[in-house]
Amino acid sequence: MKNKILIILLSAALAGSLALSGTLMYVNVHQNKKVNRYIADQLERQAKEEEKLNNYQEDGYKVGEQYEIRSTKEISDAYISGDESKLSDQDKKTLKIAKGILKSVIKDGMTDYQKEQAVYDWMYKHIGQGSSTTITMPTASGSDFTPGGVLVSHKAVCVGYATTFRMFMNMLGMECHIVHNEYHSWDLLKLDDGKWYHTDIYSDVSARTQYQNFNMTDAQCSSGHDWDTSALPAANGVKYSYAVQNNKKIKGLDEIPAKVKKVLTKGKGASLFYSFDKKLSDKDMKVADVLVSQMTTALSLSGYDGYGLSASWYNSENEGEYILGIFVNKYDNGENSEADPKVVAKVNQIIAKAFGIDPNSLGTPASGNEAP
Q1: Residue 203 and residue 216: Cα distance in Å, rounded?
Q2: Is 38's pLDDT higher than 50?
Q3: I want to staple 177 with a disulfide (CB 3.0 to 4.6 A). Which of 10, 188, 300, 359 is the partner?
Q4: Could you say which DSSP state residue 281 is in?
Q5: Whether this model's pTM surpasses 0.85
Q6: Pair 221, 198: CB distance under 8 Å
Q7: 112-126 vs 158-171: helix axis angle to the nearest 10?
Q8: By the 8 A CB rule, do 120 and 357 touch?
Q9: Helix, strand, or coil here: 173?
Q10: Of residues 330, 342, 329, 331, the one with CA closest to residue 367
Q11: What percentage of the chain's residues is helix, strand, coil (to nearest 5)?
């Protein structure tokens, strides 16, 4: 009788074990199907993204039907390999100038972000907007949209800024795309956090707002730019935005007017970034809008007619917290800031004598035409 009971118990246990095993097998198979389907979906999505990227015309595209985006891969490859034998004479000259610039701004131990900022700073300071020189420099004729022309003339249209910046980034071993629409172009850079960032040097130079368009997310960039977002990698990096890297923490919004006034008394423009001790409420955000608007009015009332003021919110690395960027712009009232008044006066005297006219009627040189 005891043996029968033992057999019955063992049979029941075996049956239960088989049932449980069958259930686990079913669950595992079902889960594996879900995982495989997820992987297949992800691979299909990635394939579609790669196809769009491959179909996206970067080099060869003409912005404004005039300024062609031209490849600089041979130049950057030659810099990395040290072999210049396959370069044209013009490309060798471009590489020589680019080498000298990188040697002057890139230091040992720099991170990719620091290298990017060093190149951005050099271009912001040394490259002016294109088509504004009276006498064209040798090798720069009609090429303020190519690095060769840009680095010789120090003048660039938007395509010139974008291709020159891309060339430098590629020389430094970083992935970089040129983003464009029918009338404008800028750069999309991948940094060592694996994230992509938009940088538009032309727009910063144009508006005299350094770092306002430096390392933006798609969301930030879309407020002033338009492009085919499906054709390029998503830019959602925050860590290396200039606002995150260089903000100053303050207690509250009421500290900002005095800080802006201090900048004005120095007679220069500036880009200011502030984070806050406490998370701003919706009410605080509205107060910030009023604050910037009223400070703009205060500029003209205080006699700062040659200044402008703008502001932008930037994401911080802490979700739901923001950094406020304040941009104080100093304008030159349409005069060519590069023209020495003494030189202009002397030249006007010479021309007036030759043409028999009043030297005062010549005025100052025009600042030139801006190009996209």
Answers
A1: 13
A2: yes
A3: 188
A4: P
A5: no
A6: yes
A7: 150
A8: no
A9: coil
A10: 331
A11: 50, 15, 35
